[in-house]
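ARCHIVE CARD
Drawer: 12
Card no.: 0347
Subject: one protein chain, sequence and derived structure
Cross-reference: see card 0346
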Amino acid sequence: MSRAILCLLCLFAPAAGAIVNMEGLHLETPPPGWSGAGDLAFSGNEGNTRTLNLDAALRLRWRRDPVTRFLVASQSYGESRGIKARDRSFLHLRHIRQVRPRHAREAFVQLERDAFARLRLRALTGGGLRLTLAASDRRTALLGLGAFYSRERLSDGTSGEDLDYGQWRGNLYLIFRHRWDAHRRAWLTGYLQPDLASPEDVRATATAGMAADLGRNWQMNWQVDYTFDSRPPRTVGRYDLTYRAGFTRRF
């Protein structure tokens, strides 16, 4: 059954999107074997304003000490007055091997697209080290140091031809989580990804969120995501800010 779910998710991935909670990807310690979680958020308006927004995500996890693997896919879609206004896709596969209590090695593969950032496809693979800076019942902090190779295909926007290029980028991240109790927590994650051949070309991502357990494996969550690109494609802004509230069902 688990293999069937995994295959289904792989087929779904090209239409997946970007509301992923990366805090859970790094800080969760799933039970041995297979486990997972799904997110769904929906909103809309009719009348003077006509909008439709749909966010969906699915996360599968497998663990057998000292190895943990995550597969994450999501889709973010929106319409305004019947015209598509948002269309983002995301797929992430991560392999983590704990080599010491505060030291882990990780490798990852990621695919993503964003129709309104002219990003037809970004495919990257990389890895690095993950260091635990703090670990207690209330507070956890992680530092990641690594690099990845990225291949990108952008729509030109003028001649109608795609731009295709590759680059090596550093991958530095800091993740912090605070627990008030067993049912409420907040987190902050930050990623910095400079081009190794041109360090002034920098991409950054920050996420802040909160979650509260509702019982019966249901959870309410809030999340704000900020992304920055010092050299975005022509006609695309340097930053993007998104926010959402929704529910998660664990299984």
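Annotation on reverse: The two ends are 13 Å apart (CA to CA). The helical segments are 2-12, 22-27.
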